[in-house]
Amino acid sequence: MTRRAKVLLTAALTAVLALTGASVSWALWATSATVGSTASTATVTVGHALTGSTLAVTYSATTTAAVGVITVTNSGTRSGTYSLALTATSASATMRAATTVEIGTAASCTTTATLTGAVSGNFSAAVTKTGTLAAGASVALCVRTSMSLVNIAANASASLSATAATSIAVGTWSASAATPITFTQNVAAPTGFQSVDSNRYMIYNQGVCIGSNWDFNAIGRGVNCGNDQTSNWRLTSEAGGVKTISRAYNTDTAPANRWNAASATSITLAASSVSTAQRWTITLRPDGTTYEIRSVTQLKCVEIASGGSASLQTCNSASAGQGFTFTAVANSTPAPITLACDSNNTNYVIYTWAVLDGYQAEVDYKVYVDSVFVKDQLNGYWPNVQIAPAELPLVASGNGLHTVEVRQSVSGAAWTVTGTGTLRVTNGNLSCS
Amino acid sequence: MTAFRTRGPRHRARQRVNLRALIGTSSAIAAASVLAVGLSGGSYALWVDNNAAPAGTVQSGSIGISTASSFTAANWSNMLVGESVRQPFTVTNTGTIPVTLSATATTNVSFAIRVASGACPVTDLTGTPASTSATALGTLAVGATRTLCLQVTAVAGATSATNSAFVVTVAGAQ
């Protein structure tokens, strides 16, 4: 071992011993203690419920609004800003714009209530009501939707689906009600004029009758109103709810000239045909009292100008010139009566009923015994029929009491019962009962 | 020495060299042992002549701290992002030497915990949270008690409806 090696060995041993012996004291001079607790963040939740009357509605001339109470509840642990948004999910743009939406509070949520703190709009965009709700608090919001009569008419048969979605924002957090409230609103189908085919009608615009010029087949307001031949009209129903409008008066030979959409703007009287130019829809307008007369082919409405002339114009339910009323000349189908019977002579009996005023020349009668046709009475001015034993059908000629029925038809319209009576057959002799 | 002389000249020379090496090595070991024992301290008494020692006591120092808190946990509940709530607690030096204090904390990621020396201020504590890295709290004298402020903050990105326990560790070092 060299001297240098010995010196290094000695130093190493010295260091090992020194460090090994000195290390014991280091761990003694550090210590610690703890404290602790728990912390939590706020809970953010919200709920909603639709109570009371439903927002589902069918708008019509008599129902123009719907209401519902949506209760929003802050079910979280901190105050927050709620938001109730009504949004259309399915509807035409016209229907969306036509439906007004209001959200507010009211002591009683009705279609006429004054809403406090209300927001309003239409379904073209979301209508949103916001406010502050303390933790655990609720607010009852009155939601009202409505549609004007004009818009009801313009959106007939349309529908709209909508949702009411609720959310709440608390600080940087937000939450939404789990399930949106959904509802559907409809608009009633057009209300057509319920005419009776056998009736004749006077048609009025702004209180003045619609008549016609006999020679020129023109129609207009106040034209020949004093003459039933030029100012009585028959409304005959066709398939699909359309009607024809034909000149009519109390005659056995029915005139047939009809209202005819001659072009996109003109209306005349023309000979009867199957052309759709002679088909019209007659629909109640938003005012609930007047009707529009719309061409099936031109999709335009009859309008009476200030001078009284008639033309076809774009339908406008607010236009006075396009509003018409109808008055039946008389009731062509009165309720059935009990036939008066005269059997003074046992060789025949006579049954009598009332004259059908206004339709004497148009009406035809048929007489049935035990539902078997016996004979006609084609003169409406003589409302009676005489039945002799020889006229009775075999099935109705046996002894006993038989049923007599008189039926009528005005100008070719469907047959209806005028009156009923009895007929007794006794060994070939006839009596009333 | 005599024995070394009775040997032939060649043998005598070798014996002289070995003797010097032995003496040198022994001296080095002795010196190292003295140094090591001296540094280690504990066994030094072995080298004291008990016949000459006077009566007395040998006593080492101690280090220790304790904490005391009366937190109201509800104060740290229902928090929103950005909200901070502070509550005080105390630390006492129970040892015999002054200690240098620092604090660390463990908690959910939705919260940040800060610790400061002194009573809780009205305004928020700022700086790096103790839940991120240790916070220095200064020196505490022997027997002294100091009030510390513990602040819990709901941090950006916190999740609502989170409930978490947390622990603050106050360390004392010489």
Structure description:
- The complex is a heterodimer of chains A (433) and B (174).
- With 433 residues, chain A is mostly beta strands.
- Chain A folds into three domains: 46-187, Immunoglobulin-like, CATH 2.60.40.2310; 201-328, Trefoil (Acidic Fibroblast Growth Factor, subunit A); 337-431, Immunoglobulin-like (Sandwich), CATH 2.60.40.
- Chain A has helices spanning 3-22, 93-98, 149-154, 228-231; strands at 30-40, 46-51, 57-59, 65-74, 80-90, 100-105, 116-122, 127-133, 138-146, 159-170, 173-176, 181-187, 201-205, 208-213, 218-221, 233-237, 243-247, 258-261, 267-270, 280-284, 291-295, 301-304, 310-313, 324-328, 337-338, 340-342, 349-352, 363-369, 372-377, 384-387, 400-410, 416-426, 429-431.
- In chain A, the strands form nine sheets. In chain A, strands 3, 5, 8, 10, 11 and 12 form a six-stranded mixed β-sheet that branches.
- Chain B has 174 residues and is an alpha+beta fold.
- Chain B folds into two domains: 2-47; 65-173, Sandwich (Immunoglobulin-like), CATH 2.60.40.
- Helices cover 21% and strands 33% of the residues of chain B.
- Chain B has helices at residues 2-5, 9-40, and strands at residues 65-69, 84-93, 99-106, 111-117, 135-140, 145-154, 163-173.
- In chain B, the strands form two sheets. A four-stranded antiparallel β-sheet of chain B has the order 1-2-6-4, with no helix packed on it. In chain B, strands 5-3-7 form a three-stranded antiparallel β-sheet, with no helix packed on it.
- The two termini of chain B are 58 Å apart.
- The chains are: A mainly beta (433), B alpha+beta (174).
- The interface between A and B is large, with 37 and 63 residues.
